[in-house]
Amino acid sequence: MDDKIKLSSKQEIPNIKKRIGATTYEVAMHFSTSSKESMEDKIERLIQNDCIDLK
User: Fold this and answer.
1) What is the pLDDT of residue 15?
2) What is the separation of C-alpha 51 from the centre of its chain, rounded to a whole number of angstroms?
3) Quick one: pLDDT at residue 14?
4) pLDDT band (50, 70, 90) for residue 3
5) Are the beta carbons of 5 and 18 closer than 8 angstroms?
6) DSSP symbols for 8-46
7) Which of 46, 44, 11, 47 is nearest to 29 (CA)?
8) pLDDT at 1 over 50
9) For 10-40, what is each residue's pLDDT tens digit?
10) From the CB of residue 37, how many other CB atoms can be counted at a distance below 10 Å?
11) d(C-alpha 40, C-alpha 25), whole Å
12) Where does the chain have alpha helices with state H?
């Protein structure tokens, strides 16, 4: 399996391509410039919501 992440240098929006087996996944990332939450806050909120959903 190829674990290397390739970023597209042609576009403003970074793309990640990852090949797993015979399937290639491509993800375009974007970040809000007006966000009031830090990345740490977002991850913590996601984990808390997942824990609530498990109950």
Assistant:
1) 81
2) 20
3) 73
4) low
5) yes
6) -SSSSS-EEEEEETTEEEEEE----TT--S-HHHHHHHH
7) 11
8) no
9) 546 678 899 999 999 998 877 777 888 888 8
10) 11
11) 25
12) 39-54
Facing residues of 7 across strands?
16
What would the mean pLDDT of 28-53 be, rounded to a whole number? Answer: 86
This prediction's pTM: 0.42
Amino acid (one-letter) located at 21: G
d(CA 35, CA 40): 13
Is the four-CA dihedral 4, 5, 9, 10 of positive or negative sign?
Answer: positive
- Tell me the backbone φ, ψ of residue 36, rounded to 5 degrees: -100, -10
- Report which residue type is found at 51: C
The span from the CA of 46 to the CA of 40, in Å, is 10
Helix (H, G, I), strand (E, B) or coil at 12: coil
